[in-house]
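Reopening: structure tokens for the zinc ion complex, inputs below.
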Amino acid sequence: MLTTPTEMPAAASIPAETLFIGTVITVAPENPRAEALLARGGRIVAVGDESSVRAAASADAQVVELGSRALLPGFVEAHGHPTDTAIALSRYMIDIRPVTIAAAADVMTAIRDGVAARPDGAYFTGWDSLLQSGLEEPGIELLDEIGGGTPIVILHNSGHVVYFNTAAAHAAGIDKNSPNPVGSHWVRDDAGELTGKGFEVGAFFALLGGVLQDAQRELPALLTTYLTGLNAVGITTVSDMSWTHAKAPALEALRQTGVTARLRLYEMSVPGASASVPLVNGDDLISQVGVKTWADGSPWVGNILLSFPYLDTPAARAVGIEPGSKGSANYTREQLDGIVDQYFPHGWQLACHAHGDLAIDMVLDCWEALLERSPRADHRLRLEHVGTMNPAQFERAARLGVTVSFLIDHVYYWGEVLVNDLFGPEHGGSWTDARAALDAGLRISLHNDGSVTPAEPLRNMMVAITRATRSGGHLDEVPGITLEEAIRAQTIDAAWQVQAEQLVGSLEVGKYADLVVLSADPFTVTPDQLPALTVESTYLAGAPVYQRN
Ligand SMILES: [Zn+2]
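Re-run output (same inputs, fresh job):
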């Protein structure tokens, strides 16, 4: 899995040697700060005090005087979806995310305009009635009325619900007799008819897999655009948590034009299947490292498995959450046992989406039994997002060697929704408790989850430290983490989660020169000011992949 060929990004020009002088934040345990760093041939060859690093440089090394700026390891997005997000945010779909459109009326206008402009099929991404307050669930009658013969598919911002009309169902060959995709289901009325709503990724792919073929063909170019955007926020390694082997030719094509971020792929589990590639595959730039499963769904649509009920509020009812509901899981324990046995005994790392505390218990039970059947010392089993995971569960995870990755932006964008609309102060206010995870001894990462919220590692750090919400509140039922911990969660510990810590994640001799230059030393600003720092430049293996104008 960890190989060390010396391949470089094909398109970028690589200076033979670059000497950085100034504030160097290494994230290395021994020497967390240095005065200079020398990159040669894509690797870090010296880091330390200025005089010794200068002495190691050749006379013609390109010199970068950092001045008031700071050099850090390139950021790692440990839980992304680049191959899907590149399409979701392309011209093939219409962006109605709450970060793009705030008002409910404007969302409906965008849907009607989209149908008028695209009579062959209008596909939307980003519906979220909890943030776009006043939106009502779009039943099949409404979407039939809006669309007529035009297929309409609307993906919920969470990626866990899809809405569609009759024309879209026809186009996809789905009707009332269609079976539920495994791990997913179609919502039906009392007569068994489709209601225009489906849960989970299997439903989404059934509706859109065929119609987005043009986008799939264009995937190499769309990915280039998307990865360039990640470089602009300092990201140099990103995982793909919804990888399928069908997309492999697109990545091979992308290699020909130059890849500007390392990709670590997690193939979506399929009941009964085995991994599509051997355990040892790819190279330092692109490799498949694991397998992804979804134990439950999204807090915003009611399908996370909880020990306590959702609040009964108008907002909860408006998204279809029944009073007293404790949510649901996508798989039974028996189904999960089957899936893990398909992959883990062959050496694969597993990553499992789990938000509800009972879903987390189920996964930990499953994995504890798995580790008894198939012991492995360094397995890095990953739990993803973990909204309601509690201190006792973090401690159990630590005993099992399980690691967690937080969608910390839930606090920022949905903080008030969590407390006031869905879960109350106890459970909503302690959402994504990174402090408890660290106190239990876990290594953690922070992530933005593809298109769910804009990828911004510096804002993630601020939120993890302050637990601030977008509207000025704070979810301070639990304390935040420190800046050092937050930086580790976007660099070395995130790299460790995606099995790349020997290559990247800290500035140490021998690792790749994957670097980000920030406008100031993050330790000299208040946590609230972190998102206002700018990314001045980003390097992959010593080659500039982003320069701020
Ligand atoms: Zn995800």
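Residues 409-429 form the longest helix (21 residues). Residues 79, 81, 241, 449-450 surround zinc ion (CB under 6 Å). Marking as resolved unless the reporter disagrees.
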